[in-house]
Amino acid sequence: MYKAGALALKVSGKSDLSEFKKFTLNDRELIQKYIDIFKPLSCEYNFANLYAWQDTCKMSWTLYQERLLVYDGISGYAFMPLGEDFYPHELVILSLNLKNAGMSPNFSLVSLNYLKRFPEIEDHYIVKEEPDSAEYIYNTNSLDNLTGVKLHKKRNLISQFKRFYPDFEIHLLKGKYRQKALMLARNLMDRHKEHSATLDHEFYAMEKTFDHFDELGLEGLVINVREKIVAFCVFSELCHSTYDIQFEKADTDFKGAAQVINQEAAKYLKDKCQYLNREQDLGIKGLRRAKMSYVPEKLITPYSLIYNPADLQDPNW
User: Fold this and answer.
1) Rounded distance, CA 273 to CA 140, Å?
2) Could you give all domains of the chain from N- to C-terminal order, each with its CATH number?
3) What's residue 16's pLDDT?
């Protein structure tokens, strides 16, 4: 376990809760140092995600006792502070400080390891499992090789695509391909009979991501068929062992394109990382089936801590 005071983060002084602020590109280096040292498993801590989604999720951040503290104004939860683990009584004090600042005293993205280390946390918080926020972790080599009976259908779809479109090309998501990829995303969104806030928010985050693609340290691939982009994906490093797949889109008119871009991303990244985090299914049944069909190596299910009002009777607990 690293001691927070030993971090070479060049943090001057202590931040308090009045200093919550928006994410800027200049914050990336500092936040990435926390990620590199404490190695969070959740894609929610990925800086590119924080930056791209901050407007729609009303996210802000501060440093609190040398931990990174992110607040999600839409959900009304603070992320579990990133840094040396707080003891339960320290977390209670933070909850009280948040409440006194007019914010929610609850926390999300709490790991099972934390709950096992501090079982007494249930004396002060209601612990809630969040299965709809589980993140799908895959072995990169497995997604590239697609061996085994369970992945037979994926291999068939890839073979069909290559047979129907033998002249397809794979390119890095650079230059002219970025604008074409955004056009594909927009066209796919417009095909939905009913516009949803979720799709609108995703496209807004995607546009913001593409506007600062290089500054956010992002990479990506596209599938090109006769000058038409039929699939693309965007990814970045989450920690040393894991890359996060932030966006992935495929034109359903091109059967097998989704499976090909998935495999090509794994092929491209297999020498860079052991795992791919393909994020959550958000409780959407079709998305859950699709993610499970790739046989994840593990699911990382987070927990929430709902502050127990009884503790408010004794702030000096």
Assistant:
1) 7
2) 4-130+302-313 (3.40.630.30), 135-300 (3.40.630.30)
3) 57
